[in-house]
């Protein structure tokens, strides 16, 4: 039987892989202007990292985590029918997002010593969620994210958002079709009272809302703003707004974030119903959507401030803020807008072998060119010269170096320009220089 890839996963190769690499390169270029350095954390973490960080009332933790057991532990779990006997350190899950693992790493490696300077890091990699698969919604997808720990200055919130918008622009997205939504979710001083108000509001309207929202009233009432059910959304449109309930500090923070965004010329829309899916957000939250061509999966990125997360992961109180963007979603948006992020295969020099006795000379020429930093392709199948020229075109070769018996006898090679078909002979030992002058 021929095995198939798991549902909701993708093999990345060819143009799609080039696009993923290009997206990471654009992220690196853009984020390094803001002095972010790269980090890679494990693709799996102890379940508790997500349970503490993301929260047990979220869909991500309750329904969507892929669990991981090593061989012996798996047998144990099967036998006992439960993982209760496993030490917490052996209960693992594939990461559904990057922030909780990043914060775990920050605690473990003391990225921000008490009173230390903020740390800014970015990452790129696969994330795993057991979602119902549809266009733009996968089970293994790729995110690029950036995180800052150690400062609560509203200028930082604005800078992180400006950096995110810089990134989308650098990818070639039409920014007139991109919407930035912002909101403040308050903090432990003002959110509990607001949550209570929303809970009461849902209970008062329970007969008009879905069963899940009725449960949310007690577990995670703010999530009712995000309910997929249109009727629930309609009802929630009339719910009390957090903007009216913020404490003075949160209101001031939010006002300053918006003032900085105004100064940066970044357009945004305030969305008082934007609550984001994960429990850890405080104060500033934001989401970026594309306005056309994406159907229901229009969110291409989002993030927010998470001032309480370090403590949830066992660290000292340390403010933080970050965002994550989805590679697959951005690709859908770019494709819809006719932007080719992958671009063509990079050009190369093709070294053609006109006769079997020239094979060794071709090998030497390839070696010399590659050692000089040139991207080189050659034939390994003894094809005809005509077919090698076709291959050279396929590999997007700008130049073709041809070595045949005449060239061999003259201690030379023929260098052919693939576009103009002009060609000249150069001495074998002048090949590297000749190629360098022509590409
Ligand atoms: P989140 O971590 O849920 O805030 O997601 C951040 C971004 O990741 C979203 O805006 C999407 O672009 C992307 N994303 C989230 N879940 C998926 C998924 N299942 N498949 C593809 N992209 C996703």
List keywords for this structure.
single chain, 439 residues, alpha+beta, BirA Bifunctional Protein, domain 2, Rossmann fold, 2 domains, eight-stranded mixed β-sheet, five-stranded mixed β-sheet, 16 helices, elongated, binds adenosine monophosphate, cytoplasm
Question: What do these coordinates show?
Answer:
The radius of gyration is 28 Å and the shape is elongated. An 8-stranded mixed β-sheet has the order 1-5-6-11-10-9-7-8, with helices on both faces. The chain has a 5-stranded mixed β-sheet with strand order 13-12-14-15-16, sandwiched between helices. Strands 2-4-3 form a 3-stranded antiparallel β-sheet. It has 439 residues and is of the alpha+beta class. It has helices spanning 14-32, 47-54, 59-63, 71-80, 99-108, 154-171, 191-204, 211-219, 230-236, 248-264, 309-312, 327-336, 359-371, 385-394, 405-410, 431-438, and strands at residues 37-38, 44-46, 67-68, 92-94, 119-128, 140-149, 178-184, 269-270, 282-290, 299-305, 320-326, 348-353, 376-378, 397-403, 412-417, 423-427. Helix 1 (14-32) runs antiparallel to helix 6 (154-171), helix 6 packs parallel to helix 10 and helix 7 packs antiparallel against helix 8 (211-219). The model has no long low-confidence stretch (mean pLDDT 94). The chain folds into 2 domains: 14-190 and 246-336, 2-Layer Sandwich (BirA Bifunctional Protein, domain 2); 348-438, 3-Layer(aba) Sandwich (Rossmann fold), CATH 3.40.50. It binds adenosine monophosphate (AMP). Adenosine monophosphate binds next to strand 6, strand 10, strand 11 and helix 12.
């Amino acid at each position: 039987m021929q095995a198939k890839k798991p549902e909701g996963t993708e093999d990345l190769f060819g143009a799609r892989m080039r696009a993923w690499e290009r997206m990471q390169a654009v992220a690196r270029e853009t984020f390094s202007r803001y002095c972010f350095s790269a980090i890679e954390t494990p693709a799996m973490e102890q379940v508790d990292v997500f349970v503490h960080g993301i929260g047990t009332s979220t869909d991500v933790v309750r329904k969507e985590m892929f669990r991981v057991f090593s061989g012996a532990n798996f047998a144990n779990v099967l036998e006992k029918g439960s993982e209760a006997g496993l030490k917490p350190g052996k209960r693992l899950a594939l990461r559904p997002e990057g922030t909780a693992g990043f914060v775990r790493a920050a605690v473990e490696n003391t990225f921000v010593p008490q009173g230390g300077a903020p740390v800014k890091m970015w990452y790129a990699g696969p994330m795993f969620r057991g979602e119902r698969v549809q266009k733009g919604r996968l089970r293994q997808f790729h995110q690029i994210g950036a995180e800052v720990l150690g400062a609560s200055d509203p200028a930082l919130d604005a800078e992180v958002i400006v950096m995110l918008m810089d990134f989308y622009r650098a990818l070639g997205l039409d920014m007139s079709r991109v919407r930035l939504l912002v909101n403040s979710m308050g903090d432990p001083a003002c959110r509990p009272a607001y949550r209570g108000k929303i809970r009461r509001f849902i209970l008062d309207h329970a007969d008009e809302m879905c069963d899940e929202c009725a449960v949310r009233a007690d577990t995670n009432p703010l999530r009712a703003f995000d309910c997929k059910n249109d009727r629930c959304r309609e009802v929630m449109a009339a719910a009390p707004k957090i903007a009216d309930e913020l404490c003075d500090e949160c209101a001031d923070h939010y006002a300053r974030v918006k003032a900085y965004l105004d100064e940066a010329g970044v357009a945004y829309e305030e969305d008082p119903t934007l609550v984001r899916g994960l429990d850890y957000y405080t104060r500033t939250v934001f989401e970026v959507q594309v306005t056309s061509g994406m159907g229901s999966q229009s969110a291409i990125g989002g993030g927010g401030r998470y001032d309480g997360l370090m403590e949830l992961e066992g660290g000292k109180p340390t403010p933080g803020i970050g965002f994550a963007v989805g590679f697959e979603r951005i690709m859908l948006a770019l494709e819809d807008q006719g932007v080719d992020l992958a671009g063509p295969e990079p050009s190369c020099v093709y070294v053609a072998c006109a006769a079997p006795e020239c094979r060794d000379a071709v090998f030497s020429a390839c070696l010399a060119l590659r050692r000089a930093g040139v991207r080189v392709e050659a034939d390994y199948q003894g094809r005809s010269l005509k077919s090698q020229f076709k291959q050279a075109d396929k590999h997007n070769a700008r130049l073709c170096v041809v070595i045949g018996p005449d060239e061999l006898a003259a201690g030379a090679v023929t260098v052919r320009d693939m576009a103009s078909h002009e060609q000249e002979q150069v001495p074998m030992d002048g090949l590297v220089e000749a190629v360098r002058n022509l590409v």
